[in-house]
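Re: that chain you flagged

S.,

Sorry for the slow reply, it's been a week of failed gels. I finally had a moment to sit down with the sequence you sent. For the record, here it is as I used it:
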Amino acid sequence: MEFQNTREFARQLDANDKLAKYRDEFIFPHVNGKQVIYFTGNSLGLQPKRTKAYVDEVMNDWGKLAVEGHFYADKPWWDYHERFAAPLSKVVGALPSEVTVMNTLTVNLHLMMVTFYQPTQKRFKIICEEKAFPSDQYMIKSQVKFHGYDPEDAIVEIKRRPGEHNIRHEDVINTINEVGDELALVLMGGVNYYTGQVFDMKAITKAGQDAGAYVGWDLAHGAGNIHLELHEWDVDFAAWCSYKYMNSGPGNASGAFVHERHHNDMDLPRFAGWWGHNKERRFLMEPQFDPIRGANGWQVSCLPVLSLAPYLASVEMFDEVGMPAIIQKRDLITSYLEYVLHEIDKEVNGNFEVITPSEPKERASQISVYLHGEGRSLFDYLMENGVITDWREPNVIRLAPVPLYCSFEDMYEFGQILKAGIQSHK
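Prediction finished late last night. Pasting the C-alpha cells below so you have them in one place:
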C-alpha cells in the first residue's frame, strides 16, 4: 500500500478498518480536555467499558450471597477460572486444558521453574536473552542461587552483536548448540520489551529440546499481540501478564501454559496448594495432594475472583474479535506509524533510528525509536500535548499502536505533535 502522511488518508484507513468500532469500547484519559493518543498499551492497556459490569457482578453476588457465591453466583466463584480455558486457548494457540489463570507473571514463572528447572551436576545452565526485562533477570538469578549455583557460571546471555540493536536468530541457535549437554533450560521473552523484537519461538523451542533442555517463554508482550501456537510448537511452559495488550487492569492476574504431555507426569516436582487439587475431591480436605490433570494442577491458592473479572471481560472481547483480525490491523497500523516517523524525520531534518525490526514477522505492536539529538524535554512535550508514550534512557521512546483502540488518525496526529515538539526546541 502506498501510504500518505495526510489526515485525509489516515481517516480513509479508519473508514476501512473493521476493528474501528472497538475504539468506543475503551475509556481514554484526557489531557487539556482532549482525548489522548495512547501508545503505552505495552505497559498498561486501557480499561474496556464492559469491565465495570463484570466487577459489579462479583461485588453484587458477594453482597447478596456472601460465601454462597462460591457455588450459587451466576458465575460461581469456585470454577470462575474455567471460563477462560476456551477463549484464552485461542489467544495463545493451546488446548483448553493447557491454560490456566493464577497469581501474577513473575510468581508464575517461579512456579514453572520449580517444575522445569531441575539442574544436575552436568546439566545446570539457563539460556536467556541479553537485556531481558529486569524481573526475569532477577528471577533467574535467584533460582540459580537457590539451587546452589553461581549465576556467572549457570546463566548464559545471548548478546547482540556490536553495533546492532537486535539479537540474531542464528546466534540463539548457535548458543544453544554450544552449551549443549550443559543446558537445562531456555527461558526467554517471546517479544523483547525494549526493542519489540519477536523471536522465532518455534525454531528456538525445537533447538532447545533437541539439546535435551526444557524451553519456556515469558509472553508478557506476546499474549494478545502476536500469533502464538504454543501447543503445536511443543513449548514446555509459558506465562504472561494480562494487563498489557489484554487490558485486564494494573497488576492483574497472569496466564500460564503447560503442555499436555506433562499433565500426567506425577514425577515432576511442583509446589502444591489446594486449588490445584482434584476438583471433585477438593472439599474433602484430604491430606494427600492429587493434582488436577492439566494446567490447573499447577494452581496453588484460591483464586482472586475480583481480579479475574476484568480479565474475563477482556478475554471475551478477544474471543469476539479473534487474533487473525487483530494481527491484520496490527501489521498495517504499525507499518503506517513507522512510515509517519520516517516522514516527520525528513521534514524536521532529524536523525531518528528505529531499532525495532522492519519485518512484520519479527515485530509486533511496537516501534522503539532513538530520537538522536533530542532529550527528555521532547518526551515531556509529547505528554503535555496528549501523547502518552514511554521513555527509556538514554533517548528511546516506545510506541505501541494497539489495534483494538488506536486509530490511523492517531498515528497522523502524533506525527504532527512530534514535529511541533522538535521544532519548538530548535
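What I noticed first: The radius of gyration is 23 Å.

Talk soon,
D.
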